[in-house]
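tool=predict chain=A
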Amino acid sequence: MRRFLLRSLAVLAVLAVPALAHAAPPNYDLLYVETEVTWPTANPGSANEGGCFVLNTTHGDVRTRIELQVEFADGKVERLTNTGVPMLLHPEDGFIVNVFFVVPEDAPLGPARFICAVSGVSLAGHGQIEREAQSSSFDVVP
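tool=predict ok
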């Protein structure tokens, strides 16, 4: 009887694991965004490169729009590009944008950030809207 009880408990434990996995809340994010900068430092008047990876994480189409900018230590923001035409991403589609940018001659020394902000609208269901922004840091040095 004791062996039967132990086997029954073991079977229940194995069957309960998948049930608990399905009980997890769903992921409601439309987009995954990741950024990087090529060089950890840049001099005023020189250049750096920023990259932005965008991925549709849903099972439906998402219309996206991307904005790239650099924020310097004094709070000044320079807009790099703004795609006027939204891009349509099918399920699990993605894209990468790499851009070279010039650090202004008068840029303050100190930390700076390359920022990628992406807006997405789900074309399925109720038109869920999401704005996802990520950044990567670099230092402006003499």
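Residues 2-26 have pLDDT under 50 and may be disordered. The radius of gyration is 23 Å.
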